[in-house]
Amino acid sequence: MPVTMSNHSHAEDWFELLTRPLWGLASAKDSVPDEVWASLSATLARALDPADAWYVGDVADGGQRIVESASVGWALALAPEKLWEPLGPKAKDNVSAWLSAAYLGPVADTNWHYFPVFAGHGLKRLGIAHDPAVATAHLERMGEMLLGDSVYEDGPGGRVDYYNPFAFHTYALLHFKLSGDDRYVEHAAAFARKFRSWFAADGSAVPYGRSLGYRFAQGSMWGALAAADVEAVPWAEAAGLARRHLSWWWDQPILDPSGRLTVGYRYPNSALVEQYLTAGSPWWATKVFTGLLAPSNHAFWTSAASPVGPIVEPHKAARAVHVRDRSGHVTRLNGQAWHPWARGGQASYGKFAYSSLAAFSHAAPGPGLEFAVPDGALMLSEDGRHWRGREDSDEGSIDENGVLTISWQPWEDVTITTSLEAAVDGWHARVHVIETERTLHTGEGGWCAPLSGHRSEVDETKASVVSGGLRSEIIDGTGDREASVIEPMQGTHLYWPATVLPVLRGVLEPGKHILKSLIYIGTEV
After folding, report:
1. Model pTM greater than 0.85?
2. Burial class (CB in 10 A: 0-12, 13-18, 19+), 106
């Protein structure tokens, strides 16, 4: 197993690599070669044997083990003849004891409440005694996390991100598939109808939030709907969203020479993932294959894929507005604040806008805007060298016209109200009303574009870049900022290893100021 950074033990990291593919493998159990199942069964027996050098550890030790109990339970529920029946009596005792401990084990007060539920599904299929009240309590806690609009808060103070579709709602559908318990199925269906707006016409999903290193897990909900036979959207639409998403990912350089998923996003780069994401983590993406549980004559498979069109979709509970423009690209206007405990949380959550066409950048240690990388953001500085963006803020409000307004306070004596509005032509507008008692440098960015082969154009109020078949442009609406194009630190962007970025710079003296800008990203070069 490749050695990568992690906040888990090496045993836990290895266990991820062993068990996460089970989400997909169990869904396609009869198409998986017998020798693969034999190897998995034998290795799982060693991983859960306390006397074996490969033992992953006790669930009571905490950490990642409880997470992976869900995929073990899922696979045992669907494919006991592949994983369980080949085991000897002692191995069965070990697996039973470990999974039973996981069923009763401690969980973070987040989407983790689903992990014991799936451990319980495995126990039930194997006929191992367990108290159903434990799973019921976890499921009830999930309901307490609903914010309204069929959106979940990922634990107290948690964010609304891809954990809604690829965890909460996907698990609700798969739980329904195994148990017939439909308590959260209608919430999943309602969310799916808005979730369509997160996907571009080319199949890419707008990158936002943490755990983007799970890659095509972003599309797992479409397969889970098919697995559960829940027609939340017309099957032709679900099929199109799923197929285009996998096709888009298949065209990206995300595999190593041996065919394994790498750590990163659109290319291998472990600097752009959270502290908990390691070499085995990306295999969570195999949840996208749960749709294989739907029979071959299901409409999810037989329907011709429906295209998607322009849309403006407010997500009030998610504090976001999604706009799919006439070219099919998605912009997310974002009101949620940063996620302070996750590495890169300010970049993943704190920017004002995110794009399926141009993604976003993480900041890197160092002085200057080239390290701060203000794409989709307004950055502020006292000295012009050390920059900060939006961190804590209110969660924003969305009016009847789809205008998102956020108030934030980067210093005690600096208050800012930012308004965001997007159109279906690739443009969006930002207005910042700033009241400051100190002198501030400002740096505001449009969208990054690939460095290689780029052409730049700069005048008094505008900076634009054409590169890689796209155009990125920012226009100053107030006329008192300097336009330029910078080269951010290499390796900071999710899509491209090296980029350029149109920016506006200015200086604000103490007082009240209004900054206006228009920002474009698109393929009209």
Report:
1. yes
2. exposed
